[in-house]
Amino acid sequence: MNITLGAYLLSGTPGYRQAGIHQYIKALIEALAARPEVLSGEFKLTALIGPTVRNQLSLPNPHPERLLSNLNSPISILPSAHNTESPLMRLRVEQMETPRVLREGRADVYHGMAFVAPLRAHCPTVITVHDLSFITRPETHKLMNRAYLNVLTRLSCRRAARIIAVSEWTKRDVVSLLGIPNNRVDVIPHGAHARYRPLPAEEVTAFRASSHIGAAPAIFFLGSLEPRKNLPALIDAFSAVLTRIPDAELFVGGSPGWKYQAIFDRITALGLKDKVRFIGQIAQDQLPLWYNACDVFAYPSLYEGFGMPVLEAMACGAAVVTSNVTAMPEVVGDAGLMVSPDDVHGLAEALAGVLTNADLRAALREKSLRRADGFTWDRAAGMTLETYRQTHQNHP
Predict the structure, then answer these.
(1) Same structural domain for residues 162 and 28?
(2) Cα gap 373→151, rounded to integer Å
(3) How many domains does the chain have?
(4) Of the candidates 248, 226, 212, which has an alpha carbon nearest to the alpha carbon of residue 134?
(5) Is residue 316 situated within a structural domain?
(6) DSSP assigned state of 184
(7) What pLDDT does 284 receive?
(8) Cβ-contact 372, 332 below 8 angstroms
(9) What stretches of 80-138 adopt beta strand conformation (E)?
(10) Segments forming the whole domain that contains residue 232
């Protein structure tokens, strides 16, 4: 069975483009490549990528220098001739060039890994929908991005043979807001990469020292700097925490996205420039250290289709304080503290409670690790292959 993966949103540009969806595509492709169904040749996969991301994928291959010649790799890699980092060029490649690639490659199924598939694809399509915040929270998106997703996600989903939703919450939105029949939507949650795990105490201690975290209580946030992540509310809550724990510090990881000036304005207004540290984009191999080093991971997002940083933090054994809305309860279960993202007082109380109570931190750590064990990329890859199988069987 020939499956073509639309992986154009893999990004070779450091910054917010290498956040959630990029990580989903990368992790899923790597997990698919390791599945026995792919290694045996039952599924033959081809990933369509942009020309700048050749080194983004880590695939089992005894001859790495031959990766792009499709030899000895369980997944063929086909770069576009055009730079798909540009939204307009990506639209052209997706809608005008990809149909030809699918015909020439005799694809049996096309998987649009981020919201959209070519509307003129000759084969049945599968679409992954990560969230519908561009409909439910339009003010948090850039205008052009919102318009693109509104039009092409609706059309792609209506045409798709099957849709993958990354949570039950997202499935409910797809059914209710896009009018897709319930039985055409498969829920396939994300996984946590094996790198996200508890690290030796001496390694974490050395990292805290080298990163100038020190002995003070440390709150860590990770996410693109954009309105949906609700950072101004976290800043306000942190200001309240300081009245009880004056030496606490807030570390903010993630690249600037859009509409982020309110974050810096709030820090200035509250006089917190010396208490809030912006780390910028954090390399993937460094993230487990940050999750392990923090005393609490804070993620008060307004809307998440899944919430990958929360799962990663839990897999490292972090105590988590997050929102009680959208998909967050599905991910966290009883393993973290959840509050309304609009409740600054409640958020401050939860953060202060974790920072001042070692027994609570230990209990949350144990629950986090147990909860995270249920989310793996291998499981996600197996479920995704089953979606491909059903699609092909029902649309020969």
Answers:
(1) yes
(2) 37
(3) 2
(4) 226
(5) yes
(6) G
(7) 86
(8) no
(9) 109-112, 125-129
(10) 201-372
Let me know whether 182 and 307 are in one domain. no
* One domain, residues 100 and 226: no
Q: What pLDDT is recorded for position 243? A: 97
Spell 301-318 as b/e; 16+ CB within 10 A means b.
bbbbbbbbbbbbbbbbbb
Q: What is the pLDDT of residue 140?
A: 80
Structural tokens at position 158: 């209506």
DSSP 298: E
Give the pLDDT confidence score for residue 259 in this predicted structure: 86
Task: Give the global pTM.
Answer: 0.90
- Which residues, in sequence order, are CB contacts of 71 under 8 Å at separation 6+? 63
DSSP one-letter code for 183: G
Give the pLDDT of residue 18. 57
- The alpha carbon dihedral of 322, 326, 332, 335 has a sign of positive
Residues 45, 126: Cα–Cα separation, whole Å: 14
Q: Residues 183, 318: one domain? A: no
- Classify residue 196: in a domain, yes or no: no
If asked whether residues 159 and 127 sit together in one domain, one would say yes
Neighbours of 362 (CB within 10 A): 12
Quick one: how far is CA 86 from the chain centroid? 20
- What CATH number is attached to the domain comprising 107? 3.40.50.2000
Name the residue among 171, 200, 170, 166 with its Cα closest to residue 23.
166
Task: Using alpha carbons, list the distances in angstroms from residue 98 to 49, 63, 302.
Answer: 11, 28, 35
Inter-axis angle of helices 261-270 and 231-242, to 10 degrees?
20
Instruction: State the pLDDT at residue 268.
Output: 95
Please tell me the distance from the alpha carbon of residue 371 to that of residue 72, in angstroms, as a whole number.
37
Separation CA 292–CA 371 (nearest Å): 16
- Per-10-residue mean pLDDT, the chain, length 396: 93 60 92 93 93 66 40 76 82 93 96 96 97 90 86 96 98 97 97 96 94 91 93 97 97 89 94 94 93 97 95 98 97 97 98 97 97 97 98 89
Residues 174 and 259 in one domain: no
Same domain, residue pair 119 and 250 = no
- Give the list of residues 6+ apart from residue 218 with CB closer than 8 angstroms, or none: 208, 248, 249, 251, 293, 294, 295, 296
Q: Are residues 289 and 170 in the same domain?
A: no
The neighbouring-strand residues paired with 321 are 298, 337
